[in-house]
Amino acid sequence: MLKREINIADKLKKGKTLLLFGPRRAGKTTLLKEFARTAKLKTVFYNGDNYRIQNKFSQTDIAELAKMVDGFEVLIIDEAQNIANIGRSLKILNDERPKLTVIATGSASFELRGQVGEPLLGRKTTQLLYPFSLAEILNGRQDLPPAVVWQEMRAQLLIYGMYPDSVLAKNDQERQDFLNELVDSLLLKDIFAYQEVKGSDLLFKLLALLAFQIGNEVSYSELAAKLGVNKITVQRYLDLLEKAFVVFRLGAFSRNLRNELTKTQKYFFYDNGVRNALIANFNPLDLRNDLGALWENFVINERLKRRACSGARANQYFWRTYAQKEIDLIEERDGKLFAYEIKYNPRAKAAAPKDWQAAYSKVSEFKIITPDNFLEWK
């Protein structure tokens, strides 16, 4: 088992509920079971997928709720979005048992956030858990230097992603089997369970279109035309896919200069393996024509994971002008801009575009990120 960088005990605050969000099969349940096993606290663990548990916690009778937590210091509810009225139930427990620590997980933020938002206003903290980060994988391989492990595993991680089941699988066939099952059965489960959609075919077609556009701006109108629906439907479905932790977006960075794009978006997948499963392409790197897209998706994901683990705050964007001058990733943190060009070829050379230098050189740094210097990137 690889140790996660996130320490649940450090995230707990007295009198507040910890909401742990993240994709299905990213490791939330494993992380919490490990916490329950090692914490010196009396902990009870309930599965929100269980009908009996759903029935018990959907009640707002304090006497019934108390029976579920009597004698325990920590209450953990996994997949809490499946429980009706969970927000009100947790508020009642919070009011009546102020010393009880509560942890609730959700694999779809639109459902759990919606249920607990108002009832737990000011009484909750949020933590995101993504699939494994490269740092977690390297920390779990103490038998070899990090650079050697990175060289050895790079192709696997770019093709099959970083879900725990994929990373820990014995061979590539097991990885493919896991990813195909994830995509076919679990990836969109929460969307179909809680949201009105026109059918799985449309969502999967939309995901396939996004998979082929990594690193490129997305046009809602163009997607709508290809899918035979209106733009509003496309935007709604993209919002659902974001809240189900399938894709995320970067907006365009601009300080309202005349030549900068301002309203376009790029979409990325939370995991390379999921992206490749959606387009049925697990070909080795030397047979692919999308290596640049895979690398860009991987790199930007790693930055998300780093922020989630460290608690560091940063805004992320891409930058492009109408003249097609661009920078792949802009990070805005601590009052400064950090510009990154993401290239798989370690011999690639690039300089910050002149328009960028003219506008932002005094407040920005520019760097090329390749596999060769990735481990050094801070």
Question: What is the gist of this entry?
Answer:
The chain is α/β, with parallel strands linked by helices. It is built from 17 helices and 12 strands. The two termini are 26 Å apart.
Keywords, please?
17 helices; WH_DNA-bd_sf; Rossmann fold; 378 residues; Arc Repressor Mutant, subunit A; alpha/beta; DNA-binding; 12 strands; AAA family ATPase; DNA binding; 3 domains; 5-stranded parallel β-sheet
Oligomer kind: single chain
Q: Helical proportion?
A: 40-55%
Question: Ends: how far apart?
Answer: 26 Å
Rounded radius of gyration (Å): 22 Å
- Total count of helical runs of at least 4 residues: 17
Keywords: DNA-binding
Organism: Termititenax aidoneus
GO molecular function, one term: DNA binding
InterPro entries: AAA+_ATPase, AAA_14, DUF4143, P-loop_NTPase, WH_DNA-bd_sf
How is this fold's topology laid out?
Blueprint: H1 8-11, E1 17-21, H2 28-38, E2 43-47, H3 51-57, H4 62-69, E3 74-78, H5 86-96, E4 101-106, H6 109-116, E5 124-128, H7 134-139, H8 146-160, H9 164-167, H10 172-186, H11 189-194, H12 200-211, E6 217-218, H13 220-227, H14 231-243, E7 247-252, E8 265-269, H15 272-278, H16 291-310, E9 315-320, E10 326-333, E11 336-342, H17 354-360, E12 364-369
Parallel strand pairs: 1-4, 1-5, 2-3, 3-4, 7-9, 11-12
Antiparallel strand pairs: 6-8, 7-8, 9-10, 10-11
Helix pairs in contact: 8-15, 10-15, 13-14
